[in-house]
Backbone:
């Protein structure tokens, strides 16, 4: 088993989703299946509601399996181990070479990444580039669009 690195917040969010799927969604879909069977007539293969409920049940069970695995192998990072060094749990400020704007990101584990909330994965191009580096370092980011340099303005 390979550990999945998560922040405490990310871990708790996954556990909460897992509990919701197990305790609520599973029962709701099961009830939809029963209703579709009861009201579906003789041929379940032509029952659209039954088919939709079966597909949803399959998706939910797959997600439950994924979450159970992630929770089982999670390595939780409450706070960065090395102050001033970028790692999972750090808040970083970076500035791309030739750009005036300073960007702020939180480095998180892959399953909790949310670029729209400025949460980037330690496995993302920027995350990989800054991990292990400190304030003032200039690092090269290798992205699909090409490589570019960023300066680490601050690490918290």
Residues:
């Amino acid at each position: 088993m390979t550990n999945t690195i998560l922040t405490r917040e990310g871990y708790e969010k996954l556990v909460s989703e897992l509990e919701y799927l197990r305790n609520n969604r599973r029962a709701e879909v099961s009830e939809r299946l029963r209703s579709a069977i009861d009201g579906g007539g003789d041929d379940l293969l032509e029952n659209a509601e039954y088919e939709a409920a079966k597909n949803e049940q399959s998706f939910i069970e797959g997600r439950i399996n994924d979450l159970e695995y992630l929770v089982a192998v999670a390595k939780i990072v409450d706070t960065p181990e090395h102050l001033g060094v970028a790692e999972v749990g750090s808040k970083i400020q970076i500035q791309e070479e030739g750009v005036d704007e300073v960007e702020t990101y939180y480095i998180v584990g892959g399953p909790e990444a949310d670029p729209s909330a400025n949460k980037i994965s330690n496995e993302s191009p920027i995350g990989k580039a800054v991990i292990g580096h400190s304030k003032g370092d200039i690092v090269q980011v290798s992205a699909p669009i090409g490589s570019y340099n960023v300066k680490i303005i601050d690490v918290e």
User: Anything to note?
Assistant: Strands lie at 4-7, 74-77, 91-96, 102-108, 119-121, 138-143, 146-155. The chain has two domains: 4-77, 91-155. The chain has a mean pLDDT of 91. The radius of gyration is 22 Å.
